[in-house]
Amino acid sequence: MASSLLPTRTATHKPALALFAGAAAAWVFVLVTLGAFTTSIGAGMAFPDWPLSNGSLNPHGWLSNVAMFAEHSHRLSGTTMGLLTIVLAFWLGRKEARAWLRKLGWWALAIVVIQGVLGGTRVLLDPVHVPGFDMTLGQMLRIPHGVLAQVYVCLLIAIAVACSRAWIGRALPVSAGLRRVALACCALLFVQLTIAAVMRHNAAGLAIPTFPYATPAGGLLPAAWDFRVAIHFAHRVMAVVLALALGWLAIRIWTDRGCTLVMRCGASVLVNLVLLQILLGAQIIWTYRSPAMTTGHVLVGALTLATTFWLTWLAHRDVIEEKAAA
């Protein structure tokens, strides 16, 4: 009798849970877009207080002022993301049979809380100057806030994919070599996104104001160096490395017998995202950091990571389930 009162936990497909997890994974890109736009127009301090905005949940004038709209929309979307993650974590904790997936839900909840605290602390500590640095302490917190956001994106994708019928219903016997290439690409993307966050929040997006060359005379190396030039140049070098690595990953997926048609289509999407990302990066230079181009570059970067991680996660499906069952 007592056992009948316990929550039902089976490894079967749960359509409602899968749909909710997918919606949460989709919403995170709204949050990323609004965060990128806020940073692109320099609106991160449109409100000097937190968690309220000018002491209100509905601050006066935020719908008519672009800076206020960007920042307050980002805060509202972050709150929505937090609520979605709370529901997802508890839903998984109550109904999901796989312990590792329940843990992912709690990790996602922990990260969204940390992200909220980082975002708020960034505002509250903005006036605190750090000796020897151009950025304030609050401004420095923008970097881990941006990097951790990408980890959070990957966690939500992992949860959504693991809840899908395709994950539960079939094996994906891809080669170990493909899995290694995919993992390496994910690692390279996280390095690039960290470099990008440092560059972006050090106002180094135009430290090298020409593209594709590093000097107006057509030089491959910058004529003068400082920290901003170095981090910008590192970002360009990593872009070349990633273009080659992600291209190789796509080829491996297209030629691996264990990959599904969906994975092969995903590899084609990935190649196009890389090409679009390079074009947007060039447009940032050519338009002198147009907010639209900059926001698009950040969003496509997140989509590139998400697609690569999704393919990597699918490639490891059998390994993950076998280890969990052992």
Could you give a quick summary of the protein structure above?
Helices cover 70% and strands 0% of the residues. The protein has 326 residues and is an all-alpha fold. The protein has 2 domains: 14-169, no CATH class; 171-326.
Task: Produce the secondary structure layout.
Elements: H1 15-40, H2 66-95, H3 99-124, H4 137-140, H5 142-162, H6 165-169, H7 176-201, H8 227-255, H9 261-286, H10 291-315, H11 317-325
Helix pairs in contact: 1-2, 1-5, 1-10, 2-3, 3-5, 5-7, 5-10, 7-8, 7-10, 8-9, 9-10
Main beta sheet:
none
Alpha-beta content class: mainly alpha
Net shape: globular
Strand proportion, as a percent range, falls in under 5%
First-residue to last-residue Cα separation: 30 Å
> Which residue ranges are poorly predicted, with pLDDT under 50 across at least 5 consecutive positions?
1-8
Number of domains: 2
Order of helices and strands: HHHHHHHHHHH
What percentage of residues falls in helices of 4 or more residues?
55-70%
Radius of gyration equals 21 Å
Helical region count?
Answer: 11
Count the E strands. Answer: 0
Mean pLDDT: 92
Structure, explained:
By secondary structure, the protein is mainly alpha-helical. It has two domains: 14-169, no CATH class; 171-326. It has eleven helices and no strands. The chain has helices at residues 15-40, 66-95, 99-124, 137-140, 142-162, 165-169, 176-201, 227-255, 261-286, 291-315, 317-325. Helix 3 (99-124) runs antiparallel to helix 5 (142-162). The longest helix is centred in the first third of the chain and has 30 residues, at 66-95. It is globular. The model is unreliable at 1-8 (pLDDT under 50).
